[in-house]
Specification:
InterPro entries: Bulb-type_lectin_dom, Bulb-type_lectin_dom_sf, Kinase-like_dom_sf, Pan_app, Prot_kinase_dom, Protein_kinase_ATP_BS, S_locus_glycoprot_dom, Ser-Thr/Tyr_kinase_cat_dom. With about 800 residues, this protein is α+β, with helices and mostly antiparallel strands. The chain contains 19 helices and 42 strands. It folds into five domains: about 140 residues, Agglutinin, subunit A (Orthogonal Prism); about 150 residues, no CATH class; about 30 residues; about 100 residues, Phosphorylase Kinase, domain 1 (2-Layer Sandwich), CATH 3.30.200.20; about 240 residues, Transferase(Phosphotransferase), domain 1, CATH 1.10.510.10. About 25% of the residues lie in helices and about 25% in strands. It starts with a helix and ends in a 13-residue tail after the last helix. The structure holds 2-acetamido-2-deoxy-beta-D-glucopyranose (4 copies).
């Protein structure tokens, strides 16, 4: 106590600002314009007027040195404004922090209500302090140290800052929820609230309510920082030293995740909701799903076995009335009923109408739902490797179709809908048509087998097109042979100003064709050993490869020594320009990253298997993944490996230092390549996307190991999620991230036989299979950073045998 007083005394000697108010001293008066400042100058507390209002409020805001735009995060008297500057904040004789105005003898306008069990001696030992977390705390000094009597974090306004909680504490009877302001000028309690519904029978859900009605429902699935135990249940934002982010419920009901951009002195919205029609709770009514991608038509669609309740409404594109069972007279109870899958949806609302049963397989879950006639749907959910069963007993509300994420729902339908669903899957079960269909199928099968055999035979002997096929390809309107002069004009004579980049195979320029089409023009370095006919042939072959995750080859130009390729133009450049850029990386949220990972995987799979030419890319890296206008990934340079001859490629890549980090050990050291070396490179790309770090970048904490080594170490220590990019601010799907990291580790295993094929990778990423445990990856340890410059690494640094890892538990 004495020491503390002494410290406080000393502090006052050196700092004109203070962070504490004690009993019967040091009042904070509005007329004095004084503020409390937390120790490290993170937050300030004082009187202010919001917007154009002249009313006075006591609030906490980020101090100017941290956040230059005044951002009030908490308000004491939000519903009791003071109409002049007579406000005084002080500890009163009951040991409460209280706000007085107009007349000091009156009852306080606002107080902390911490007066329980006041004793005279006790009051003396109370003080209020503004902490560096932004929390205003009433303490009582005691023999056992300081006791928290009250804290502002327990009474959020409209903003959640790191360290605050939003949820419930049953033990202390606290309800941490956000309430919007009335308007930008009035911080009084507005219409909207963000709070949790603990929903003990099923799963907790977070909602934005407008009054008592549901306005927006947070996507189910655990948030990364969701905590639930016997006493409390809450979400929270973690402290980050390098980024300040907050959650805010605006007066319009918009729930925002904001990130402070210090360079531009403004808050940047990471995401917000509800924004699109499908976001609003119940936009499509009951028993229907909302498809955001369907916006040009009508976004609402009844789930199988249901039809619009109001056909009129449906015709007007108003889905609010939702859908009802198709045939009320056909019972769905022990009458041949069954389940039809609705793929990849946001779980229907579980409040009051659902039940969660833990440790129950999908099959048991189906039976559980089937045996209770009021069960309308079920979903099998795997959490932490345990299958759980979620069943619904009423109308299904607020379903949204996701393309990437989402879970499969099984809806109970009557026998007629069940038969319809099966038919639409292409299996005619009727006896009458069975025989002709079977005969046709067998014939078809024979034809397919024959053609596959023929094709294979053909492919064995050649990998190129015959003259006729080549002619056909050339006639194909999408492949063009360009005139050199056209391309010189398009690129302003290959000027540096138009140069987009340079790689092992040559330089790429931005160009505009006479028809104003923007294209990327790749001028190959003059080392191709191919003759003109071979080159043409090769280009024609590659131009035939078409996949949404491959950059499209539009044509080529051959003149003298010049070999030029004309490609689709990608406005957003390459993935690395986002991933490793401090400001642009925040544009890639988790959803987008997961889509990119899946897109790249599908593109590589197409090259390896789906296309008729097996192509091994051999130079997969983030700078060869381009992003289109929607930030969807497209692999570039995929035909290069064929255009250039084998060993020469290796020679090329040696000079590109950045590529080193992506090469598999057998390729880097022995020059051996296979589809499995592409799988290795894909694994690196995947881990880079998840972590936002370069594999060959340096690490402050672990400078002796690279990214793979770092991921592996965390994996062994069972805390691998620490690698997830901190710029995602913990907003990501836990299970997806974990799955991605595990797949990444499987891809970078030392022995190529252990690495999965690309088809397996795509399947694993879909989450429809359990994953094997990865073995220790290649290149875990690096003796010095100089290796980065030398792709031909001495043996000891890629085989990690010289170092032992203890505690290599398989997960
Ligand atoms: C401010 O409010 C008090 C209490 O309601 C009232 O007595 C006083 O007249 C008001 N003053 C002004 C300037 O409106
Ligand atoms: C203080 O607590 C009492 C009893 O719990 C409650 O009625 C009152 O509204 C509270 N006052 C404030 C300002 O929160
Ligand atoms: C102080 O701590 C002791 C031992 O933990 C406990 O018995 C006692 O009740 C505490 N006193 C106060 C005032 O909290
Ligand atoms: C069916 O489930 C509902 C909801 O859980 C329950 O109230 C009802 O008793 C169950 N019926 C039977 C027959 O088990």
């Amino acid at each position: 106590m004495l020491l503390k007083s002494l410290l406080l005394f000393l502090l006052f000697q050196f700092c004109t600002c203070r962070d504490t108010i004690r009993w019967n001293e040091q009042q904070l008066k509005d007329v004095d314009g004084e503020v409390l400042v937390s120790k490290e100058n993170n937050f300030e507390l004082g009187f202010f007027s919001p917007g154009v209002s002249s009313h006075r409020y006591v609030g906490i805001w980020y101090s100017q040195s941290k956040i230059s735009a005044k951002t009030v995060v908490w308000i004491a008297n939000r519903d009791s404004p003071i109409n002049d500057t007579s406000g005084v904040l002080k500890m009163n004789r009951y040991g409460e922090l209280a706000l007085y105005a107009y007349n000091m003898e009156n009852i306080p306008i606002w107080s902390t209500n911490a007066s329980q069990s006041v004793q005279n001696t006790d009051t003396l030992n109370r003080y209020v302090q503004l902490l560096d977390t932004g929390n205003l705390v009433v303490f009582r000094d005691g023999r056992n140290g300081s006791l928290i009597l009250w804290q502002s974090f327990d009474y959020p306004t409209d903003t959640l800052i790191p360290g605050m909680k939003s949820g419930l504490n049953w033990k202390k009877g606290l309800d941490w929820h956000l309430t919007s302001w009335k308007s930008q000028d009035d911080p009084g309690k507005g219409d909207y609230a963000f709070r949790v519904d603990p929903n003990h029978n099923a799963t907790p859900q977070y909602f934005v309510y407008k009054g008592f009605t549901k306005y927006w429902r947070v996507d189910a699935g655990p948030w990364p920082n969701f905590v639930s135990n016997a006493n409390e249940m809450y979400i929270t934002l973690p402290y980050k030293s390098n980024a300040i982010s907050i959650l805010k419920l605006k007066d319009s009901g918009l729930f925002q995740h904001l990130l402070w951009n210090g360079a531009d002195h403004q808050w940047v919205e990471m995401w917000s909701s509800p924004k699109y029609p499908c976001d609003w709770y119940g936009h499509c009514g009951a028993n229907s799903k909302c498809s955001p991608d369907n916006i040009n038509l009508f976004e609402c669609e009844c789930i199988p076995g249901y039809e619009p309740k109001s056909v009129d409404g449906w015709n007007r594109r108003d889905g609010i009335d939702g859908c009802v069972s198709k045939r009320v007279r056909v019972s769905k109870c022990r009458n041949g009923e069954g389940f039809v899958k609705v793929a990849r949806v946001k779980d229907p609302d579980t409040s009051n109408v659902a039940r969660l049963r833990t440790s129950m397989s999908a099959k048991e879950c189906e039976q559980e739902c089937l045996k209770n006639c009021s069960c309308t749907a079920y979903m099998s959910i795997t959490l932490e490797r345990v299958a759980n069963c979620l069943t619904w007993y009423d109308d299904l509300m607020d379903m949204l179709v996701y393309t990437g994420a989402g879970r499969d729902l099984y809806v109970r339908v009557d026998k007629i809908s069940l038969a319809e669903a099966r038919n639409s899957q292409g299996f005619f079960r009727s006896g009458k048509v069975l025989i002709p269909i079977l005969t046709a199928l067998v014939a078809l099968l024979l034809i397919i087998i024959l053609s596959v055999w023929l094709l294979k035979k053909k492919r064995k002997t050649r990998d190129y097109l015959d003259a006729e096929e080549l002619e056909e390809t050339k006639r194909h309107p999408e492949l063009q042979f360009f005139d050199l002069n056209t391309l010189i004009a398009a690129t302003d004579n290959f000027s540096d100003a138009n140069k987009l980049g340079q790689g092992g195979f040559g330089s790429v320029y931005k160009g505009e064709l006479p028809n104003e089409q923007k294209v990327a023009i790749k001028r190959l370095s003059r080392t191709s050993r191919q003759g003109i006919e071979e080159f043409k042939n090769e280009v024609a072959l590659i131009a035939r490869l078409q996949h949404r995750n491959l950059v499209k080859l539009l044509g080529c130009c051959i003149k003298g020594e010049e070999r030029i390729l004309v490609l689709e133009y990608m406005p957003h450049k390459s993935l690395d320009s986002f991933l490793f850029d401090n400001t642009r990386r925040s544009l890639l949220n988790w959803e987008k990253r997961f889509e990119i990972i899946n897109g790249v995987a599908r593109g590589v799979l197409y090259l390896h298997r789906d296309s008729r030419l097996r192509i091994i890319h051999r130079d997969l890296k983030t700078s060869n993944v381009l992003l289109d206008a929607k930030l969807d990934p497209k692999i570039s340079d995929f035909g290069m490996a064929r255009i250039f001859q084998g060993d020469q490629l290796l020679e090329k890549t040696n000079r590109v230092v950045g590529t080193y980090g992506y090469m598999s050990p057998e390729y880097a050291v022995f020059g051996r390549f296979s589809t499995k070396s592409d799988v290795f490179s894909f694994g690196i790309i995947l881990l880079e996307i998840v972590s936002g770090k370069r594999n060959n970048g340096s690490y402050e904490m672990h400078y002796s190991i690279n990214l793979i080594g770092h991921v592996w170490q965390l994996w062994v220590e069972d805390k691998v999620l620490e690698i997830v990019d901190s710029s995602l601010l913990e907003i990501y799907q836990l299970d997806e991230a974990l799955r991605c990291i595990q797949v990444g580790l499987l891809c970078v295993q030392e022995d190529l036989k252990d690495r999965p094929a690309m088809s397996a990778v795509v399947f694993m990423l879909s989450g429809e299979t359990s994953l094997p445990s990865p073995k220790q990856p290649a290149f875990v340890f690096r003796t010095s950073s100089s290796i980065v410059d030398d792709p031909f690494i001495p043996n000891e640094s890629y085989s990690s045998n010289s170092l032992t890892i203890t505690n290599m538990e398989a997960r």
